[in-house]
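Hi C.,

You asked whether I'd gotten around to modeling the 197-residue construct. I have! Everything is below, sequence then structure, no commentary in between.
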Amino acid sequence: MRNLKSGILIFLIMAVLTGVVYPLVITVISQTAFPDKANGSLLSGDGEIHGSILAGQKFTLPEYFWPRPSISEYNALPSGASNQGPTSEALRQAVEDRSRELTPYISGQIPADLLLASGSGLDPHISPDAALVQIDHVAQARNLSAEQKAHLRELVNQYIEQPQWGVFGAPRVNVLRLNLAVDDTFGKPPLEGANQH
């Protein structure tokens, strides 16, 4: 009986420590030290939340830079890879379909990250090459002058993120940040609901 009481007491103490005290301490520390990251690295403006810089989202209008394809259609719940290998007929067909859709908008070779989904299906970044090849369609859709188009190119270059600590990863562009900067610089497209992508 004594062992049972000791076991129950230890269980209750550990339940309070690990189920209440520890989460509370971690929450207070994270909200105090880095609240932005603790709350999902959300980007907001004009009184609305535009999304997280950590998760890709769908942009389909030609006035915007397009992200990597997503197997889950940018839905975070069933996110993941297609698990299709290089010999997969379905993967080959998907790449051909995406290439056919992009060809009217992108001249020359289409970067691989605009044709292939990421492992999570929610990659918020594209390569600098994938951003630079989209300048023409964004500029044309927004009716930008030659001078404005040059400024758009500067904006893309400005939003290229270098590898973390100069070592980890590759140069990349956060699509949401870039598109919000494009809206701030050149205005939102006149289409109703354009900010819904």
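If it helps when you're writing up: Helices lie at 2-33, 35-38, 89-102, 128-132, 135-141, 146-158, 175-186.

Thanks,
B.
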